[in-house]
Amino acid sequence: MSSVFRLIRRCAFGLALFAALPAHAGNFGDVLRYLFVSHPAGSLVTVIDTRDDRIAGTLDVGLVPLQLEGSGDLAKLVAIDGRSPRVNLVELTGGRLASVALDFVPQRIVVSPNGLKAVAIAPEEGVFALVDLLFAVPLGPTRHHPQLHDLLFDRSGQVLHIADAEGIERFDTGTGRALGRIGPAGAVLRLDSSASGRHLYARTADGTIHSVALDPSAGTAGPGALAAGEGVARAYTNATGTRLFLPDSARRRISIVSPLTLRTEAVLPAAAGLGHVYSAWFDTVAFVASAEGPAVLVFDQEHAVRGADIPLSGVGGRGTVTPDGRKFYLPVADGHSLAVIDAEGRRLAKYIVLDAPPRAALMAVTFGICH
């Protein structure tokens, strides 16, 4: 089944559940419905019901989250604070909290595509540790990897790709053995997955984006590499894998690139201070928050043109798109609020006023790949 049909089926399923499932007090396990907003000064996470865009309650994650991620398959939140040697797991169905003790302080977490594992990372120390999210236990000892820059799971969660000063090392998460190197030689700073999971996109220190085949069925040749420039930090894919987006704050532009050939199809004017790229509404529109304005920049994917900006009351943080692609949520710390953007209408629908400044907004399941 093609990725387009899988996406349509998932959207239809999500819409049906949104309409059919009742709410239960204190139970936020419907991962297609509830959104979670973290705050920089407290352990309470605000829960938003995306059916009516109202506050549904709170969850205590047991620490002030520097980073908050979700596992849709397990209906759990995963949190670190960047100050203590632990990873906290919170069950969305009842709020039960479990803490996984580590022997280092993680600065970042990456969740596997199947939601069963996470890797906790301290890049400056050159260490990482695997965590079983189902049983809330470490998977083996802390691993030392000098000059570690980034980590990315394959789509099965069995292989971990490690970006370092020499390229990309493959690591078997089951046996703990190194599996050899793939991709470009030299320092790799960032790894991002393709929509299918058959390729990854590696950004090297010289600003080049490389496409690296992971699945033998994807072919060994691949489309090669693109000299994106030092202003491009990473490549973003849309949900169906038909386009890549390369935001460049330094040159105030965004490039739309073919994943099949890595050829640039369009270069559109943007702004400074560009954030993440969020694809929505059946991959017909892409949103990019900009500190300049501040605003959300709107890009029409089908016609490769920039639409009308959506002004914001403050600078946007990390946001999310609902699983059906209908709504884009963006936290605005200056306004103590969460912006709700109608993706189909490409307009600001409302602000949800919060009790505290927000840091990030996420759903355990989202449209396409989580950012």
Molecular structure report:
This protein has 371 residues and is mostly beta strands. The chain has a domain at 155-227: Thrombin, subunit H (Beta Barrel). It is built from one helix and 34 strands. The protein has one helix at 3-20; strands at 34-38, 44-49, 54-60, 67-71, 76-80, 86-91, 97-101, 108-111, 117-122, 127-132, 137-138, 143-144, 148-153, 159-164, 167-172, 178-182, 188-193, 199-204, 208-213, 225-227, 236-237, 244-248, 253-257, 264-269, 274-280, 285-290, 295-300, 305-306, 310-311, 320-321, 327-332, 337-342, 347-353, 360-362. The strands form eight sheets. Strands 8, 9, 10, 11 and 12 form a five-stranded antiparallel sheet that branches. Strands 25, 26, 27, 28 and 29 form a five-stranded antiparallel sheet that branches. Strand 1 and strand 2 (44-49) form a beta hairpin. It is globular, with a radius of gyration of 20 Å.
In oligomeric terms, what are we looking at?
Answer: single chain
Mean model confidence by pLDDT: 91
**Name of the CATH first level of the domain at 155-227:** Mainly Beta
Q: What's the number of helices?
A: 1
Into which percentage range does the β-strand content fall?
over 45%
Shape descriptor reads globular
Poorly predicted runs are: 1-25
Total number of strands? 34
Task: Sketch the major β-sheet.
Answer: 5 strands, antiparallel
Helical proportion? Answer: under 10%
Q: Return the structural class.
A: mainly beta
Return the CATH architecture of the domain at 155-227: Beta Barrel
- The Rg value, from CA coordinates, equals 20 Å
First-residue to last-residue Cα separation: 24 Å
Q: What is the CATH topology of the domain at 155-227? A: Thrombin, subunit H
